[in-house]
């Protein structure tokens, strides 16, 4: 009888433990379900895109501003030049290459070299007949003055308002006026050589200015009273170390 009672107690204890275990499992399952609903569990496996997704990504164009591997730097430099020209990009923000192209390596223009020598040649200040020759060894006749005298220069026939050109590279020493040859320009050609052009008007040259050969220095004016018979002309005198020499020996 005692054994039966013990067996019944053991059976009841087993049932109680079993029921408690089942209740514990049910409660744990409910908590797990609630937590899973509040957050999305991440899969422990790598999610691979499907073929349709891959094809769509390949067809999508590169978005603006994306750096494409292998793109030429020349395109970026060209874009910077366009933005600078349009005023949308300050010049100071351009790349070093653009800055170098903008002015680096450019040399300033070299000043004119005045190196006239006894073998150099000069051009005519105007084209025309010589109506009075250079003559310092003997006198020649001046029609307007009706007298004979030496002539340190030549008188070249011309027309009013014809341009008068610098005979060679020169620096303007003086712009002046005297009674005989009117308005004149005195020029330094270098090497001790100087030239004087007279009978001018509307002189464009200024003292201290450097002139290139052929550059206009002024225009032919009406003749002074000393050359009224000879007519419109340009007076041209050439000197070496302050002494008049024959200009025709150096003319081309």
3D structure, described in words:
The chain starts with a helix and ends in a 7-residue tail after the last strand. It has a domain at 130-249: Glucose Permease (Domain IIA) (Distorted Sandwich), CATH 2.70.70. It is built from four helices and twelve strands; from the N terminus they run ααααββββββββββββ. It has 252 residues and is α+β, with helices and mostly antiparallel strands. Strands 1, 4, 5, 6, 7, 8, 9, 10, 11 and 12 form a ten-stranded antiparallel beta sheet that branches.
Quick recap of the structure?
With 252 residues, the protein is of the alpha+beta class. Helix content is 27%, strand content 27%.
Biggest sheet, in brief?
10 strands, antiparallel
List unreliable stretches of 5+ residues: 41-46, 62-74, 91-109
> What is the H level of CATH, i.e. the homologous superfamily of the domain at 130-249?
Glucose Permease (Domain IIA)
Which shape, going by the Cα principal axes? rod-shaped
Q: Helix content range of the residues, please?
A: 25-40%
- CATH level 1 class label of the domain at 130-249: Mainly Beta
Secondary structure tally: strands: 12
Supply the number of helical segments. Answer: 4
**CATH fold annotation of the domain at 130-249:** Glucose Permease (Domain IIA)
Helix-strand sequence: HHHHEEEEEEEEEEEE
Distance between the termini: 158 Å
Output mean pLDDT. Answer: 79
Q: Any guess at the CATH architecture of the domain at 130-249?
A: Distorted Sandwich
**Percentage beta strand:** 25-35%
Structural class: alpha+beta
- Tell me the Rg in angstroms: 52 Å
């Amino acid at each position: 009888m005692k054994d039966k009672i013990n067996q019944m107690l053991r059976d009841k204890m087993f049932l109680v433990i079993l029921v408690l275990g089942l209740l514990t499992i049910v409660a744990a399952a409910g908590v797990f379900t609630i937590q899973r609903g509040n957050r999305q569990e991440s899969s422990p496996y790598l999610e691979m895109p499907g073929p349709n997704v891959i094809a769509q990504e390949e067809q999508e164009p590169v978005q603006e501003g994306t750096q494409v591997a292998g793109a030429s730097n020349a395109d970026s430099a060209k874009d910077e030049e366009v933005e600078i020209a349009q005023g949308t990009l300050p010049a100071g923000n351009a790349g070093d290459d653009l800055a170098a192209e903008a002015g680096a390596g450019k040399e300033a223009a070299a000043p004119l070299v005045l190196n006239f020598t006894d073998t150099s040649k000069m051009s005519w200040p105007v084209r025309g007949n010589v109506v009075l020759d250079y003559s310092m060894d003997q006198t020649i006749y001046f029609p307007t003055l009706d007298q004979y005298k030496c002539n340190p220069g030549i008188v070249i026939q011309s027309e009013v308002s014809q341009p008068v050109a610098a005979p060679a590279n020169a620096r303007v020493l003086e712009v002046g006026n005297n009674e005989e040859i009117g308005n004149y320009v005195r020029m330094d050609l270098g090497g001790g050589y100087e030239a004087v052009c007279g009978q001018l008007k509307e002189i464009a040259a200024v003292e201290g200015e450097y002139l290139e050969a052929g550059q206009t220095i002024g225009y032919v004016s009406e003749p002074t009273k000393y050359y009224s018979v000879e007519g419109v002309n340009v007076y041209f005198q050439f000197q070496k170390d302050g002494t008049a020499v024959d200009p025709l020996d150096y003319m081309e």
